[in-house]
Design a protein that fits this description.
Keywords: Signal. InterPro entries: AB_hydrolase_1 (IPR000073), AB_hydrolase_fold (IPR029058), Sec-Metab_Biosynth_Hydrolase (IPR052897). It holds the Pfam family Abhydrolase_6. By secondary structure, this protein is α/β, with parallel strands linked by helices. It has one domain: Rossmann fold (3-Layer(aba) Sandwich), CATH 3.40.50. Helix content is about 35%, strand content about 15%. The chain is built from nine helices and nine strands. The strands form two sheets. Strands 2-1-3-4-8-9 form a six-stranded parallel β-sheet, with helices on both faces. It has a three-stranded antiparallel β-sheet with strand order 5-6-7. α2 links the parallel β1 and β2. α2 crosses α9 and α3 packs across α4. The longest helix is centred in the first third of the chain and has 22 residues. The N terminus is likely disordered.
């Protein structure tokens, strides 16, 4: 008969072996990147990534879409990390607009091989998102309606021009009426990480984007050393330019590597 101490010792040894294997799996230095995690921005939800999702899954990628609560930077980073924890290998982490701040903070996760910024914000560690707007012309057509509880929407009358000028009137109306408000205080939260300092980065910039002042997107993309692709589109390029974005993500998957810049 096997005694109880032996049973416990064997069980602990098995657990330790699993732990070591799991740790090794969390550092996929040479694995091909077949996972993509998509992070939406403010005033939207993850369903806007459907076209990009279809493009990438058609190319054989495993794609997961984060649903940000938009209640704080910390909450959105936590939502993103929960998705990254579930990946079975290295992943490209993609963020649109406010999602760029989220992937900058969350992108130090060991599963992240590379970053793609889609008309997205890219602060540095120790900075806030709000600081990125300083020194650039105001985006006068991007009119916000901030409510007494501190959550902001895009003004209904300005929505199509500001956010979705290259969509149909029907699609723009649906997006306007399905807005997800963001806690405006999130823009004042300080980042502790700047994943772009340790991960190779790509940027897709919409040339007709009305959410940012002239030159702002290019300034951020150049600072982080991103490979830049321009496309004629509105701020809703994550919906209207799925092939262009999927092509850039595909490149980031083929050339990204955890911990390398």
């Amino acid at each position: 008969m096997t005694d109880l101490p032996s049973i416990i010792a064997n069980a602990l040894g098995a657990i330790a072996a699993v732990g070591i294997a799991g740790s090794a799996a969390a550092q996929p230095a040479s694995e091909p990147v077949k996972n993509v995690v998509l992070v939406h921005g403010a005033f939207a939800d993850g369903s806007g990534w459907r076209g990009v999702y279809d493009e990438l899954t058609g190319r054989g990628y495993r794609v997961t879409v984060v649903q940000n609560p938009l209640t704080s930077l910390a909450d959105d980073v936590a939502a993103t990390n929960r998705v990254l924890d579930r990946q079975d290998g290295p992943a490209v982490l993609v963020g649109h607009s406010w999602g760029g701040t989220v992937i900058t903070e969350a992108g130090v996760h060991p599963r992240v091989a590379s970053l793609v910024y889609v008309s997205a914000l890219a602060p540095d560690a120790g900075e806030t998102t709000a600081q990125q707007y300083v020194g650039h012309p105001a985006a006068t057509e991007f009119v916000l309606d901030t409510r007494p509880d501190g959550f902001g929407f895009i003004d209904e009358n300005a929505f199509k021009t500001a956010f979705a000028a290259d969509t149909s009137d029907a699609d723009a109306a649906f997006m306007r009426d399905a807005q997800v408000p963001i806690a405006m205080s999130a823009f004042g939260e300080t980042l502790t990480n700047a994943a772009w300092r340790a991960r190779p980065s790509w940027a897709v910039i919409a040339t007709e984007d009305k959410a940012f002042g002239e030159g702002m997107l290019h300034t951020m993309a150049r600072r982080i050393g991103a490979r830049i692709t321009e496309v004629r589109a509105s701020h809703a390029l994550f919906m209207t330019q799925p092939k262009v974005i999927a092509d850039v993500i595909d490149e980031a998957a083929r050339h990204g590597a955890p911990g390398k810049k």
